[in-house]
Amino acid sequence: MSTIIYPSPIFGPVHSRRLGISLGINLMPADGKICTFNCIYCECGLNEDHRPTLPRPSRELVAQKLEEKLQEMATEGQVPDVLTFAGNGEPTCHPHFAEIIDDTIRLRDHYCPKAKVSVLSNSTTIHRQEVHDALMRVDNNILKLDTVDPIYINKVDQPVVPYDVKDIIEGLKAFQGHVIIQTMFMGGQESGDRSQESVDNTGEAFVGPWLEAVKEIKPQQVMIYTIDRETPTKGLLKATHEQLDQIRDRVIAAGIPCSASY
What we know:
This protein is an alpha/beta fold and 262 residues long. Helix content is 32%, strand content 22%. Strands 1-2-3-4-5-6-9-11 form an eight-stranded mixed sheet. A three-stranded antiparallel sheet has the order 8-7-10, with no helix packed on it. β3 (82-86), α2 (97-111) and β4 form a beta-alpha-beta unit. α1 runs parallel beside α2 (97-111) and α2 (97-111) packs parallel to α3. It is globular and about 50 Å long. The mean pLDDT is 95.
C-alpha cells in the first residue's frame, strides 16, 4: 500500500488541483499521522498504521522553517500562490494553531503579499473559539463536510472524537460566509475484514440533503473532488466526471460558486 507521510513542518511547493502552486505547512510529526478523523480514503493512510514517535513541530520551528523556505523561493524567483496548512492530520489540533496562523500571515505579508493563506480542516475543532477566530483570519478557510448522514460519516470519515453533524453545520454557519466547503464524492464498496458496504455518496439520497445543508451554511464557495491517489481501504472508486459535473451544476444553480476536481 502506497501512502504519503509529508515532511514537517514545511513541504513543497506542490501543484494543488484546487489551489495552484502551494507551499505546504504540516503541523503534525514528520514520521506519522495525528488526526481526529480516520478516513478510509486518506492518502496518508489509517491512523493506526502510522503512529508517530516524534513530537509536533513547535511554533518557533514552524516560523523559522517557513521564513527560510520563503527566502529561498524569493532568491529563486518563485512565488507561491498559496500557503496551505495540510499534511499528516488535522492542523487545527496543534496547541499553538492560532499563534502559528498569526506568524504565517506576518511572514506572508513580508515575503509574498499576494499569496493566500489556506487551511484544510475536517471541521472537528471549529467549536473552539480560538480556532474559529484564527480561521476567520485566513484567506481560504476550507472545511470538510462529506455528507450529512451520520451512518456514512461513521463508516467513511470514522471520527475519533465526538462528532455531531448538526453541531458541525451550526459551526460552519457561524463563519457567516467566510468558509469554503470541501466534499469528497466517491463510489465503490468498502472491503476488508468487514462485509462489503457501499460507500457511494453520489446519489440523490446523499446529494440532496447535503445540498440543503450547503444552502444553509451559505459558503463563499464549494470544492468537490474525488479520489486522486491510492487509498488505504480497497474497493473505493473515483466519482465520474459526469457525476461531479452534475453535483457542481446543482450547487451553482443554488447561487454558490463551485469547482470540481477530477
